[in-house]
Amino acid sequence: MSNVFGEILRVATFGESHGPAIGAVLDGVPPGLHLDLRFVQRELDRRRPGTSDLVSARRERDRVRVLSGVFEGVTTGAPICLVIGSRDARPVDYEPLRDRFRPGHGDWTWWAKYGVRDWRGGGRLSGRETAARVAAGAIAKLLLGPLGVDVAAQVIEIAGIAAVRRDAAVAARSPLCCGDLRAAARMATAIRRAKAAGDSVGGIVEVVATGVPPGWGDPVFGKLDARLGGALLSIGAVKAVEFGDGFALARMRGSEANDPLTPRGPASNHAGGILGGISDGAPIVARVAIKPTSTIDIEQDTIDVGGRPARIRARGRHDPCIAPRIVPVAEAMVALVLADAALRQEALRAFSPPVP
């Protein structure tokens, strides 16, 4: 089972949805970084459940503790262990589901692979695991900050309702993490209607990384967009990723799709900031498609652990739309990839001859 992500900057997450704690071990952080724990906590607060009727009602404070790798507020170069306790776990809610697989979840595929599973809210497959990613990603953001790199995401569509405006400042204050207040109001109505019907809706989140210099990433198998795509697709509810104009590029001509080069860099950004697997200096733009939350209060067909037909109604605390809470998770995964790319680039420069 793979629980480790990254090459130079590596993160391993641990814990289950209704276990005593979740967390992450971050290895490869250079010594001497001031670890602003208040910033890490603010990032976790953005992902925390129980903040409105538009998200899961589970009440978790998600307070992070640092067990190692930091002394007097500064990283030592040793592995950093981050732990987040669980205070509002209710495994009893899942007792009726212990012998049945929830449609849309990884219950059945996990069982098919391992022959054993944690049925308490999906265990390791639960979205709660992403809190550990956000904590680790916050440290990656602290690494990127002095390099002038910023990563920000926002919801641009929910239930087919698209945002017209992109405004990171507005999105930061919006319960739906959307930069278009008019669209957000319509999105909220759609979420509440789906919730009232026992159903759920999906959405699209856009992530933009600015300040990334040209030259990060590798050609062929180590392409920066391939690494970013893999990182974003590792988020449970994400089913598709596109960069720049993405699928729309398939309907363009080369004369439209190419980004002309100027002494200041690309004149446009159809490629989304990456060419040949390497950053080109333009903002890196990625969008992820998020499926409707699989846990719904509607009876569905399924099978039990014996392979027999069954019916299931998955009551419990769940997000009627997971897109807003994926915003800080998407940022964290992009930040982890970019911080790793920055460290790889620094290592490359250390062993490369000077450019004439």
Task: Record the SSE blueprint.
Elements: E1 4-5, E2 10-15, E3 21-27, H1 37-47, E4 64-68, E5 70-71, E6 74-75, E7 80-85, H2 107-114, H3 130-144, E8 150-158, E9 161-162, H4 168-173, H5 181-196, E10 203-210, H6 224-233, E11 238-243, H7 254-257, E12 261-262, E13 265-266, E14 274-275, E15 278-279, E16 284-290, E17 300-303, E18 309-312, H8 323-351
Antiparallel strand pairs: 1-2, 2-3, 3-7, 4-7, 5-6, 8-9, 8-10, 10-16, 11-16, 12-13, 14-15, 17-18
Helix pairs in contact: 1-3, 1-8, 3-8, 6-8
Q: CATH top level?
A: Alpha Beta
Average of the residue pLDDT scores: 92
* Separate helix tally: 8
Assign the CATH superfamily: Chorismate synthase AroC
Please give the CATH architecture.
4-Layer Sandwich
Shape: globular
How would you describe this protein?
With 356 residues, this protein is an alpha+beta fold. The chain has one domain (4-351): Chorismate synthase, AroC fold (4-Layer Sandwich). Helices cover 28% and strands 22% of the residues. It is built from eight helices and 18 strands. It has a five-stranded antiparallel sheet, covered by helices on one side. A five-stranded antiparallel sheet has the order 9-8-10-16-11. The longest helix is centred in the C-terminal third of the chain and has 29 residues, at 323-351. The radius of gyration is 21 Å and the shape is globular. The chain starts with a strand and ends in a 5-residue tail after the last helix. The model has no long low-confidence stretch (mean pLDDT 92).
